[in-house]
Amino acid sequence: NDTTLVAVFDEPLDSSLAAQPLHYTVDKNINTPTTALVRPPLFSEVILSLPTPLQAGIVYQLTVNGITDCAGNPLSYQSKVRTGLPAPVTAPSIVINEVLFNPPPNGYDYIELYNRGKAIADLQELYIANRLATGNLSNISMLSHAPLLFFPGDYLVITANSGWLKQQYPLPHPVNILQLSSLPSLPDDKGTLVLADRQGNIIDELHY
């Protein structure tokens, strides 16, 4: 929310270092958090309380320095990440930009989204589905079971096998791949994909 950030790491942290607010900074005059709470039992998430509320429509940068994992390894070069307040998604701010519905043998389908709006979206609020000939939605998949920010101007590829995708295509930003356990059906001859929000409002729809 506007006064709380959750920084998520891919390894358990040295909690004594990670709990020190001075290791975190948010730009645009937000500065250092007032508290940093390392969340047990995995110790891979840090809840940061901010001294100044975030403003809607602004992309901030969180910088992390001087912390290590439990083995004493320092952060990699990726110590800066974007953050900000997500806003409700409205059509046509996010579009279905490209679909691979007929992959090579032993390959996997993918769906590419593009955020062409000005607001940060939370992928936890979005669903991808098929539309049947009856008009009803089916094969509905939630894009993320945890808050996950999708920034203006970014692309996102959704697939059932991110490893195969990385091997087949040049990806300048591999972090923008979202692997789901299953995708909506993408028949080779024709189909319909729908991007909707939690309330069932249609954000975009693609017939191919």
Which key phrases capture this entry?
mainly beta, 208 residues, 37% strand, globular, 4-stranded antiparallel sheet
Task: Give an overview of the whole structure.
The chain is mainly beta. Helix content is 5%, strand content 37%. It contains 2 helices and 16 strands. It has helices at residues 15-18, 162-168; strands spanning 4-8, 24-26, 35-39, 45-49, 60-64, 80-83, 94-100, 110-115, 121-122, 126-131, 137-142, 149-150, 155-159, 177-179, 192-197, 202-207. The strands form 5 sheets. It has a 4-stranded mixed sheet, with no helix packed on it. A 4-stranded antiparallel sheet has the order 11-10-15-16, with no helix packed on it. The radius of gyration is 19 Å and the shape is globular. The two termini are 38 Å apart. The model has no long low-confidence stretch (mean pLDDT 93).
Q: Roughly how many Å is the radius of gyration?
A: 19 Å
Based on helices, strands and strand pairing, what is the structural class?
mainly beta
Q: What's the number of extended β-strand segments?
A: 16
Shape call = globular
Mean pLDDT: 93
Characterize the biggest β-sheet. Answer: 4 strands, mixed
Low-confidence segments, given as residue ranges, are none
State the order of secondary-structure elements, H for helix, E for strand: EHEEEEEEEEEEEEHEEE
The largest beta-sheet arranges its strands as 7-8-13-14
By DSSP (H or I, 4+ residues per run), the number of helices equals: 2
Amino- and carboxy-terminal Cα gap: 38 Å
Beta-strand content: 35-45%
Q: Helicity range of the residues?
A: under 10%
